[in-house]
Design a protein that fits this description.
The chain is about 0% helix and about 55% strand. It has no helices and eleven strands. It is globular, with a radius of gyration of 13 Å.
C-alpha cells in the first residue's frame, strides 16, 4: 500500500493550490481517505476526509467553504482543492487511510509522505 501526496508549494494569501494523493494497493471504492496537516510546533489536525462508496465528506471548521476534497476512481487519486488560502494554512499536508466516525475522521495505518504548503505574500 502506498499513498503519495503531491502538489504543495508556495502561494500568496487568497490564491489556490490543489493537492493530490495517489493511492495504490487500496481501492477508493472501499477505503476512505483523509487529509491532515501539521504546522511547526502544532499538533496534527484533520483537514478533510471522504468516505468510500457514497463519498460522504467531513471538513474541519477552519477550512469549510474554502477547501474541497474529491476523488477520481479511474486514477485512484484523492484531491484537496484549497482556495482562498490564508496565512494560517501553511503546514505539511498528509493523506492517509481513515475511518469516518461521528466526530470526524480517524487515521488508520497507511500514510503518505507529506507535501509542504507555504502561504506568504
Amino acid at each position: 500500500v502506498q499513498l503519495q501526496a503531491s502538489g504543495g508549494g508556495l502561494a500568496q494569501p487568497g490564491e489556490s493550490l490543489r493537492l493530490s494523493c495517489a493511492v495504490s494497493g487500496l481501492s477508493l471504492e472501499y477505503h476512505a481517505i483523509g487529509w491532515f496537516r501539521q504546522a511547526p510546533g502544532k499538533e496534527r489536525e484533520g483537514v478533510a476526509c471522504m468516505s468510500s462508496g457514497a463519498g460522504s465528506t467531513d471538513y474541519t471548521d477552519a477550512v469549510k467553504g474554502r477547501f474541497t476534497i474529491s476523488r477520481d476512481y479511474a486514477k485512484n487519486t484523492v484531491y484537496l482543492q484549497m482556495n482562498s488560502l490564508k496565512p494560517e494554512d501553511p503546514a505539511v499536508y498528509y493523506c492517509a487511510e481513515v475511518l469516518l466516525v461521528p466526530l470526524g475522521c480517524v487515521p488508520l495505518d497507511y500514510w503518505g509522505k507529506g507535501t509542504q504548503v507555504t502561504v506568504s505574500s
